[in-house]
Amino acid sequence: MTLRIKLFFLMLFMLPVQVVHAVTFMVAIDQSSWDVEASQFSCRLEQVVPSYGIARFFHEAGEKAVFQLLPTQKGVLSGKVKLVAEASAWQPGVAPEMIGVVKVRAGDRQVNVKSDYAGEMLVALYRGMSPTFTMPGWMGSNEVLRVGLSAANFQKSYNNYVECVDQLLPVNYRQVARTAVLFPPAQWRLSDSTKARMDLIVEYIKADERVSSVYVDGHSDNAGRRLLNRDLSKQRAEEVTRYLVSKGVDEKILTTRYHGERYPVVANSSTKNRARNRRVTIRLER
User: Fold this and answer.
1) Whether pTM exceeds 0.70
2) Regarding beta strands 254-258 and 42-49, do their DSSP bridges make them parallel or antiparallel, or are they unpaired?
3) CA pseudo-torsion sign 177, 183, 189, 190
4) FRET pair for 243, CA 20 to 30 Å: which of 75, 133, 258, 262?
5) Looking at the predicted structure, is the pLDDT value of residue 13 above 80?
């Protein structure tokens, strides 16, 4: 070995060694449990991670499932978080599987995992593996933070969660609370696509007892005489109201109004804009 090589290795040994420690939060196998909260509006599948917070799969009606990691202490998360499905204690020899990297902005109070990663996490848990988050610089220190989910006692709760998802409404409140249906020029009859959209609104109204009022407002563009436009907006609004009632919406919660061309959503300056103004709006109030 030459003198140059010896000096190289000597310098390597003299370099300071940075020891990386990891702080791991995970529920013990014998205490692992998953809780399901079910309704027509949303499904939750949760595990409490002792001394850390809550791990939650959340599926809202009309949306895709997501995952949320909610720490009880603020300001403990930031940077790029590695998400890996690791083998559980009863799976010796099973190789870990990379799911992805989740970016957490400084100031975020939780880790939000998009739907495709959430799906991979559910699959991993069902297979008995442990999705684990690894975050550097825990609380501003050199410690690495690891938060793992336990697959123990998962499958039974997962089956209940799937049953809940199967019973979800096709839409949520945000998706139907403000709806505009459009009409061709000089027309007030409902198209098949408009009826299909209104059927979803009716289904939601019937399911949500908190909906106390439904406002139906008819509008027109400015083509033609003003009085005729007012009558046309009235016909459109009344046609929508008749359809809602025919599908079982209580007339007592319905308020029908018509405004002609008075309230355009955009200036009637083009064919495209006028098409947007020929509308009936349906507004739900809780």
Assistant:
1) yes
2) unpaired
3) negative
4) 262
5) no
